[in-house]
Amino acid sequence: MTGTIPLQYFLVISTLMFFIGIYGFLTRKNLITMLMSIELILNSVNINFVVFNRYLYPQNLQGHFFSLIIIAIAAAEAAVAIAIIINIYRNFRSIDVDNVDEMKF
Amino acid sequence: MNSEVMFYLLAGMILIFSVLTVTSRKILRAAVYLLFVLISTAAIYFMLEYTFLAAVQLTVYAGGIVVLIIFSVLLTSHISEKAIMADKKQSLLSALSVGAGALLTLITIFRFTFIKSDLPAQTSSVTDVGNALISYERDGFALPFEVISILLLAALIGAIIVARKEKDNAIVK
Question: In chain A, which residues have their Cβ closer than 8 Å to the Cβ of B116?
């Protein structure tokens, strides 16, 4: 199905997606949008694993299982992070990182 | 020919919607753009013929995490609220450092020669995936499977404990 597309093109997509995610993480102030940037970063790493698996080691499925496990970890991380964010909102009435500057409430 | 057109379409979608995800000032729209990125990624997995992984990507990421994010957006901010962004100087400096990092990585990628393997591909049907997940022999993934199940249990309990309302000392603020 991949035809004559070289491996590098997939790596270009995942590299650009990774750095766009980092840019979002650096410039966003809202905790939920920062979480969305983290999801972008994790997703780009998944593309890398899967493409290396398909092009360089098609006789194994290691990259495939790595991606599967990363997806499970991302889901767990998002659930815990959103629980924490909602708790922060309950205490501070805001989820901007500039306003959340004390640990004790 | 066809798969190339498809690939460029998906690549364009991924890049455009990634940029919109991190720059859109409306948080709910950013979440929907993220959904488009995740669906395009699933389409790339379909192109690479890992259909089970693509199905998991669609159900867990596009179905689960995005819905969770949209719910928490609705719980924590007003629907017409504009997100606060970093000031000009900080965004410029971040863009510069991110651009430098991307350039360095891209140069490294194109200077390295990858040797494409011609071995016959291992099939990744649901039966193969299931057998590999419970096998403890070579090419089996029983240990990571067990570890991930313990992690999921811990995340479940942790999320309940964090989000629970305490009964006796009610909310202070």
Answer: 7, 55-56
